[in-house]
Amino acid sequence: MSAEIKVDQTLDAKGLSCPLPILKTKNAIEALSKEQVLKVETTDPGSKNDMASWAKRTGNELLKVEEGGGAFTFYIKKTALGEKPRQTRK
Q1: Nearest to 62 by CA among 43, 75, 81
Q2: What is the 3-class SS of 27-49, one letter each residue?
Q3: pTM of the model
């Protein structure tokens, strides 16, 4: 049996469509300290791929994904200090 994940903050993004779940997740993660865990609840089917891609791109860790009853729950650990800056062309 796996250990239960200690959640530091929960974000209810149910009923929101892309890109709002990701934008709200980004803002919530930015407010957390490193190593804290955000639980995100969504109903947007696209969020399953979006959250995995976003976590990989930003360097945060997607600990677990739960799916059931038309909802998706994501557990994301803040492992990055912030989003990687975008490259600008000169």
Answers
A1: 75
A2: HHHHHCCCCCEEEEEECCCCHHH
A3: 0.84
Number of other CB atoms surrounding residue 33 within 10 Å: 7
How far, in whole angstroms, is CA 27 from its chain's centroid? 10
Residue 70 to residue 1: CA distance in whole angstroms: 25
CATH code, residues 9-77: 3.30.110.40
Among residues 8, 14, 18, 48, the one annotated as catalytic is: 18
Active site (annotated) includes residue 87: no
- Cis peptide before 45, with omega less than 30 degrees from 0? no
21-51 pLDDT tens trace: 999 999 999 999 999 999 999 999 999 999 9
How far apart (Å, rounded) are the C-alpha atoms in residues 75 and 60? 10
Q: Both tokens of residue 2?
A: 């796996």
Torsional sign, CA 41, 30, 60, 77: negative
